[in-house]
Design a protein that fits this description.
Strand content: 5-15%
CATH class of the largest domain: Alpha Beta
Bound molecules: 1,3-dihydroxyacetonephosphate, iron/sulfur cluster
Structural class: alpha/beta
Number of domains: 3
Strand order of the largest sheet: 6-5-7-9-8
Mean pLDDT: 95
Distance between the termini: 42 Å
Number of helices: 17
CATH topology of the largest domain: Rossmann fold
Low-confidence stretches: 1-6
Helix content: 40-55%
CATH architecture of the largest domain: 3-Layer(aba) Sandwich
Radius of gyration: 22 Å
Amino acid sequence: MSTSATEQVRHDLAPYKSLDNDALAERIDAVRAEMGPRLLILGHHYQQDEVLAHADLSGDSYRLSQLAAESDQCRQIAFCGVHFMAETADILANTPEKLQQRGGERIKVILPDMAAGCSMADMADIDSVEACWEDLAEVIGTDDMTPVTYINSTASLKAFCGRHGGIVCTSSNARAVLEWAFERTGRVFFFPDQHLGRNTAEAMGIPLDQMPVWNPFDEELGGNTEQQLTGSKVLLWQGHCSVHQMFTPAHIELFRQQHPGIKILVHPECNREVFQMADVYGSTGKIIETIESAPAGSKWAIGTELHLVNRLKNEHPEQEIHFLSPVVCMCATMYRIDLAHLCWTLENLAADTPVNVVEVDQETARWAHVAVERMLKIR
Ligand code: 13P
Ligand code: SF4
């Protein structure tokens, strides 16, 4: 592929959709070879196998943030994941200090399909969170409250946390982050995932009646009484993951009846009942480690996204692995990233006609970085 000025023509997506996966894979490999170490392809564990096969590095949200922060060699990152992950990579790869070291050159972060969002992240928008914060300031005060946002949130919410002494967490460090927050203030405001917040805080011994839920659609104090808010230790935003809410206690009971000795392994985005019944829980990275280190012949029912569970099943035939639901629950937005989109965005990158660049504005990035950096320092 030439990058000469006369050939700097933006490629359209449509023709890529008619190519088969072998042809697309070959073209992706050609771009890789041409761009060498200037290009870094990152992939989340929920990606389809054929996409992940092209990733230089894969990980859970925490690991992918670390990789983006360490990405000094590359000049472009193609992020096979969802929008908030690409935003976080942009924030970490392009801090003012790093830009200065590179003489102002930005690392371009590409999301192969801009429609690959996260429905949970969309459940908390900055206007509603700011409105809630103002209400809280009036009713109980916010001086003794640390805002904590799950990394599955927009950059503007991370910036909100940065400005208000708060922090970001992932599913792999939520407990350590809450401990950090409680060393500073008596209360935590946790968004957008009520389940990760509740499961983590309850495991730390915080009683349920000190964790009211804020419903952003209820104009009367988010559906709470003043007394409930005054007595709160962790205020939870009413958000959830539509994939993980599909797993139920009935599924666990059925597996335990039909497969004696089976272990239940779930992501902490599952609801409280499922989380409480599980034998082991953790981030996607921890789920993989658990299976990798389990003895042959172990039996598992896993409650997380389908593509990851199927991959574990294929890679570990020495173990008996089941998907913890009779219904197919996959992350439809992660699934949007396919070889056609990856090939299309990479060829445009190589031709110097980039498409789908994710760039967080400077002011938002500055404050969001404060909150992400606090997390990275903890672990
Ligand atoms: P992990 O950080 O565990 O990979 O989770 C990301 C996610 O979106 C889970 O739904
Ligand atoms: Fe968001 Fe759920 Fe998909 Fe994870 S699985 S990216 S939380 S919608």
